[in-house]
Amino acid sequence: MARIAGRDSLAFSRVVEAQVGMLHRVAYRMLGDGAEAEDVAQEALLRLWASADRWRTGQAGIAAWLTRVAVNLCLDRLRRRRFSSDAEVPERADETPGADEAMDEARLRAAALAALGDLTERHRAAIVLTYYEELPNAAAAEVLEMKLKAFESLLLRARGAMRAALAERGLTTLTGEAA
């Protein structure tokens, strides 16, 4: 970070290479839109560049800080969407031809993503960070600026909400068994 604060573009490009994929994945899974995910990843990295001189040693690592910024940017965009439109986002069909298994897998993945979209922003963030990005609960709690126990409670509620959203789509029963 000291090198980035000194405007070392090589150090910054190494951070970009190491983190941009993860930032894009988190944003895409939260927003469901590739172009918006790219914007969020770029904005998070620009904020790192702009605030590098204020970095304090002993803070969360760069990855955790960038993830927190990306999640917050996604939450802001989701809140703006809620006020700008109440229309449902059209589902994208899988255009790749494949075997029946591949088609079933794509259908299930799309339904799971749609169910994820039904969750509140905080529940969605908890599910994405825990299950898609495979962050430990402590790291996910840090990203969301929560105490560990509060995050675990949020995650428990998020799982229940996800189970209900999947049940509405006929993918599971409310007890969690496959339909």
Helices and strands, with pairings:
Blueprint (H helix, E strand, L loop, with lengths): L1 H4 L3 H23 L2 H18 L10 H23 L15 H19 L2 H12 L4 H7 L4 H21 L11
Helix pairs in contact: 2-3, 2-4, 3-4, 6-8, 7-8
General shape? globular
> What is the CATH architecture annotation of the largest domain?
Orthogonal Bundle
* Named CATH topology of the largest domain: Rna Polymerase Sigma Factor, Chain: A
The oligomeric state is single chain
CATH class designation of the largest domain: Mainly Alpha
Percent of residues in helices: over 70%
Q: Rg from C-alpha positions? A: 18 Å
Distance between the termini: 50 Å
**Based on DSSP secondary structure assignment, what is the total number of beta strands?**
0
Low-pLDDT segments: none
Instruction: Determine the strand fraction and express it as a percent band.
Output: under 5%
How many domain regions?
Answer: 2
Could you please describe the fold and organization of this structure?
This protein is mostly helical. It folds into 2 domains: 1-87, Rna Polymerase Sigma Factor, Chain: A (Orthogonal Bundle); 98-179, Winged helix-like DNA-binding domain superfamily/Winged helix DNA-binding domain (Arc Repressor Mutant, subunit A), CATH 1.10.10. Helices cover 71% and strands 0% of the residues. It has 8 helices and no strands. It has helices spanning 2-5, 9-31, 34-51, 62-84, 100-118, 121-132, 137-143, 148-168. Helix 3 crosses helix 4 (62-84).
